[in-house]
């Protein structure tokens, strides 16, 4: 009996030791995914930061790294095409352009169904419709801003009678009277206007290009087609964790803003109040039902968004089903709903 007990105790000790040795190896076996962003780390990627912080990706067997976007950085499409990132963020027209250049990409999700880009104007000359753009001097901080104005006018059957005024990223030239409108974002320059003491819909107005008839999504998510085929389980795990991150963000906007400043953007000097306000605005622009978050709208993309791309002069667009996976997020959200 003594020998039996001794052997049993020895086996238990060995089993515990084996379990201890297995733990670290499993941690090392996490698959690393690199994500290329469209902009600098900030709260617009709230779902990503939360999923990283809360261990949602780890639960899917993933470890996430990211490549910053922003000024003087390579577009996410370049990073993904070169194999430096497996997941990339993109906007509608840049994604179309990347595909037309021959890249075998697949769009798998969209963070914001409606782009927050639009025109800021003052009360003395509100720009509320596409027709109001006619004859106006518009401050444009980036080259693609002109494309958006031209496309909006074309879609509405209007001539391109407007004046482009180069500008920086601050709307202050608009306040100084240097233009009739400023192309900015509801999640950025609109907040700047509010911080300057101006009241929206009284002192200034913001109208998105989407509301003026030029539909686009923002922060779509894409992968190489080959990667989706070979590692679909990994892609599903990434999106499932990300969806959980966005769902948590909707419940507590301040959490992601504070998390962003303390971790991924700790060296950027972002303003905490601005990040909280930005998160509130972007949450309001997302689907009301958390189960619809990240899901691609087949009808909108295949219809109005394709029409918008054609209005910009882009031609020979491939069939939507060849460059997008409309089913993957639906499958994931259905699974989450059952839990």
From TrEMBL:
Pfam families: NMT1 (PF09084)
Organism annotation: marine metagenome
Gene3D superfamilies: Periplasmic binding protein-like II (3.40.190.10)
Name of the featured protein: SsuA/THI5-like domain-containing protein
SsuA/THI5-like domain: residues covered: 42-254
GO biological process: thiamine biosynthetic process
């Amino acid at each position: 009996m003594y020998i039996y007990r001794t052997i049993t105790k020895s086996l238990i000790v060995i089993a515990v030791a084996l379990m201890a040795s297995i733990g670290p190896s499993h941690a090392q076996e996490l698959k690393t995914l690199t994500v290329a962003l469209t902009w600098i780390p900030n709260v617009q990627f709230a779902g990503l930061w939360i999923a990283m912080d809360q261990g949602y990706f780890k639960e899917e067997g993933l470890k996430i790294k990211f490549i910053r976007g922003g000024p003087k950085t390579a577009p996410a499409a370049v990073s993904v095409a070169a194999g430096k990132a497996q997941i990339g963020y993109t906007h509608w027209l840049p994604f179309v352009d990347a595909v037309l250049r021959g890249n075998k990409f697949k769009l798998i999700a969209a963070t914001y169904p409606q782009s927050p880009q639009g025109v800021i104007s003052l009360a003395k000359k509100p720009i509320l419709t596409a027709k109001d753009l006619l004859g106006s001097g518009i401050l444009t901080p980036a080259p693609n801003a002109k494309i958006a104005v031209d496309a909006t006018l074309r879609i509405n059957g209007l001539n391109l009678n407007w004046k482009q005024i180069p500008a920086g990223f601050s709307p202050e030239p608009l306040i100084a009277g240097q233009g009739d409108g400023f192309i900015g974002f509801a999640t950025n320059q609109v907040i700047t206007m509010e911080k300057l003491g101006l009241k929206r819909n009284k002192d200034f107005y913001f109208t998105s290009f989407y509301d003026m008839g030029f539909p686009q999504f923002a922060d779509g998510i894409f992968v190489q087609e080959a990667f989706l085929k070979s590692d679909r389980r990994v892609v599903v795990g990434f999106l499932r964790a990300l969806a959980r991150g966005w769902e948590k963000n909707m419940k507590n906007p301040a959490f992601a803003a504070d998390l962003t400043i303390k971790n991924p953007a700790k060296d950027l000097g972002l303003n905490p109040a601005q990040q909280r306000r930005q998160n509130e605005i972007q949450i309001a622009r997302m689907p009301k039902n958390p189960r619809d978050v990240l899901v691609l709208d087949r009808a909108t993309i295949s219809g109005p968004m394709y029409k918008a791309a054609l209005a910009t002069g882009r031609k020979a667009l491939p069939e939507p089903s060849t460059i997008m996976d409309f089913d993957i997020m639906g499958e994931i959200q259905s699974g989450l709903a059952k839990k």
